[in-house]
Amino acid sequence: EEADLKKKLAGEKAVEYIKDGMTLGLGSGSTVYWTLKKLGELVKKGLDIKGVPSSLRTEGWAQSFGVPLTDFQKVRQLDLAIDGADEVDPHFNLIKGGGGSLVREKIVNAASNKVIIVVDESKIVTRLGKFALPIEVVPFGWEVTASYISELGCKPILRKRENQVFVSNNGNYILDCLFDKIEIASELHLRIKEVVGVVETGLFIGMTDMVIVGMSSGVQTINK
Ligand code: DER
């Protein structure tokens, strides 16, 4: 379907920036799915890379596509991370976490020399915040954490999947928080991080070097 084609275009384009011998950060989500699939084909043709997966779902996809995996016991620094996003603003600041992998994604991206974000054009926004901001919190006392976060101007909703509370790969909960208006994303991120019980926010500030956008007319690569 249309959106999938745009994701496929963007996801596959990112592979062009992967060089032999690289250690990669493997992002999460249905756009990165296409990166992983394409990458598996190149590995079969002899490309020598290995990747650190940013979610158990990505780990499973990588294994099924034959993408060699490594971890932070073996590598401390990654050459390139390729990841998706829920929103991208003109400063390349992101909202991520729609898939619930934001903590491991941020750890992987922070450990990478370069970060490429792959999206379909629906993710490109002029201002962050139409998409509810995912915030990972410790389950103990999450109700209190949520009330502190709400004082920052949002209504935190505990994420559920099939009527069960969603539990992240790290054993934590996710609050989806719709803010009336995100004035300065970097400030909001810091204010949220200070709240006791918060693990990480889905605001990825100043971490992105390149954005690849899949459109109906083709694919566009935007550098910072
Ligand atoms: O959860 C995440 O951060 C994912 O990267 C998500 O934001 C992008 O998912 P999609 O590529 O399936 O839209």
TrEMBL record:
NADP as UniProt keyword: no
Keywords on record: Isomerase
InterPro entries from the UniProt entry: NagB/RpiA_transferase-like (IPR037171), Ribose-5P_isomerase (IPR050262), Ribose5P_isomerase_typA_subgr (IPR020672), Ribose5P_isomerase_type_A (IPR004788)
Record EC number: 5.3.1.6
Active-site residues, Swiss-Prot/TrEMBL: E105
Superkingdom of origin organism: Bacteria
Binding site for substrate: S28, G29, S30, T31, D83, G84, A85, D86, K96, G97, G98, G99, K123
Signal peptide: none
Pathway: Carbohydrate degradation; pentose phosphate pathway; D-ribose 5-phosphate from D-ribulose 5-phosphate (non-oxidative stage): step 1/1
Residue runs in coiled coils: none
UniProt keyword Transmembrane helix, yes or no: no
Catalytic activity as recorded in UniProt: aldehydo-D-ribose 5-phosphate = D-ribulose 5-phosphate
Gene3D superfamilies in alphabetical order: 3.30.70.260, 3.40.50.1360
NCBIfam families: PRK00702.1 (NF001924), rpiA (TIGR00021)
Free-text function comment from the UniProt entry: Catalyzes the reversible conversion of ribose-5-phosphate to ribulose 5-phosphate.
Family: Belongs to the ribose 5-phosphate isomerase family.
Subunit-level organization: Homodimer.
Protein name: Ribose-5-phosphate isomerase A
Organism from which the protein derives: Halalkalibacter kiskunsagensis
Lineage: Bacteria, Bacillati, Bacillota, Bacilli, Bacillales
